[in-house]
Structures are given as structure tokens and as C-alpha cells.
Amino acid sequence: MLLTRLLKPSLVAYAHCDLPCGVYDPDQARVEAESVYKTLEKYHASTDEHFKARAIQVKEERAELAKHHIDVLWSDYFKPEHVQKYPEITDLCWKAAKQCSKVKQSLDINEAKTLLDLIDKIGDVWTKAGGPTATRMAKQMARA
Amino acid sequence: MEPALRDGDWLLALPLRRSPRVGEVVLARDPRAPERLLLKRVAAVGDGRCTLLGDRPEASTDSRQFGPVPLGDVVARAVFRYAPLGRLGKLRDRD
User: Fold this and answer.
1) For the domain B10-84, what is the CATH superfamily, name and number?
2) Can you give the pLDDT at residue A143?
């Protein structure tokens, strides 16, 4: 419609502007930590030295990725307001990042389990802070 | 900036020839990407710069991250919303 075209704003300004994308989800770290866990299960079940060597490499890569995702949540997603409301998040992110290093050094599956638990606790805070609606897109939005 | 502003609101903005005042919603150049315009509320003015904050601190990226904005980069004041029609009206300043 001509009227709409005439009235349409000529400039776009951004009021919500979390660069770059504003999408954050602790599940990203969790998937990597699950990989670590399952890789360790397979490592211990195997007798093939080549397979075991590869498993160690994969486990360390995934642990590093988990650490990266936790760092991103901590430095980009969680804001001072969240820390005020959920003070435990500082310690949780710190411990989880350190746990990733522990997992890299160790073949003990319990260390991987501890990492999963820590990520789940971060996930609980993310959920309480309204993360699912604030940072994720609804499913099947692309079809609409 | 919700609930004051929502994604997709059509606003009338007037060029700012004076210093911005605390509580006003202004258009400012993003210090991190000058071709990008931001809509934020003025929280403090002084020393040739102003602090811009979003209304929802937990979801906003603002002067807490990118620091104070030079007054020269505050280009206009958002004064009126003309669409959607259901939310037509003057934008309120905050104390």
C-alpha cells in the first residue's frame, strides 16, 4: 500500500542489541560434555590401543569445546543483574570451566559426570533467569 | 527497551540540537559500529559524554559494555510512536 510505504520509517535503530547474536544455551556445553562422557565409556570398554588413542584425542577436544561454551555463557550472557539475583553462578561457571581442564587430564569417568552436573546447575540458573525465552528462538519459526 | 519499545515499533525521532537529558530515549551511533543506530535511555550526562542504558538491564547491551557515548554521537530523540496503531502515542521520559 502506498500509504504504508510513505509512512515506513527510513532508518532502523536497535534497542535490543546484544552483539553478535544473543543466542545462548548451556545445552551447547552439555552436548560436548555428554560426548566426553560417552567417549570415556567407549575408551574403557575397548582393548584396541589405536581406538583408545583416538578416544583420548576426541575427549580432550570436546572438553575444550565445553570450556569455550561455558566461557561464552559466563562472559557474554550472564550480566551483573543475574549475579546479583543468583550469586552462585560465578562459582558454578568457574568450577565448570576448571572441571573441563580436569576432564582433559583424566580418564576417570566420574570427572566427566561432575562436569555434566555442574553444567546442569548452570542450566538451572539460565532457566530461572528466563534464558529459554530471552535467548532462544521458538521451534518451527522458519516455516511460518 | 521493553516494555517502552517493542521490536518493530515505528517511531518519530527529532534531531537533537541540545544536550540529551536524563530519562529521554535517544538514537545514538553504536560506539562499536558507528553505522548502526541504537535506541537507549539516557542515564547520566556529563563531561561531553552520556551513559545510555536499556530499560531491561538483564537483556540489554549498553554503556555497561561499551562505555559512555560522546554527546556528538547522540543524534536524535525518539518522541512518538505511530505504529502499531494500538500503541500509538508519545514516548514517556523516565525520572
Assistant:
1) Umud Fragment, subunit A (2.10.109.10)
2) 62
Asked if B82 has any chain A CB less than 8 Å from its own CB, the reply is yes
Q: Is the ipTM of this complex over 0.85?
A: no
Q: Under a CB-based contact definition with an 8 Å cutoff, are residues B41 and B94 in contact?
A: yes
Q: Where are the domains of chain B?
A: 10-84
pLDDT one-digit tens code per residue, B11-44? 999 999 899 999 999 999 998 888 889 999 999 9
How close B18 gets to chain A, by Cα (Å)?
20
DSSP three-state, residue B81: strand
DSSP letter (8 states) at residue A139: T
- Fold of domain A24-130: Four Helix Bundle (Hemerythrin (Met), subunit A) (1.20.120)
Tell me: cis bond preceding B3? Omega within 30 of 0 counts. Answer: yes
Q: What is the pTM of this model?
A: 0.57
Query: Is B32 in Cβ contact with A19 (below 8 Å)?
Result: yes
Distance from CA of B29 to the nearest CA of A (A): 9
Picking from A14, A23, A82 by the largest number of B CB atoms within 10 A of its own CB, the best residue to mutate is A14
| Three-state SS letters, B24-64 | CEEEEEECCEEEEEEEEEEEEEECCEEEEECCCCCCCCCHH
Q: Which residue of B10, B24, B61 is the best one to mutate when testing the A interface, meaning the one whose CB has the most A CBs within 10 A?
A: B61
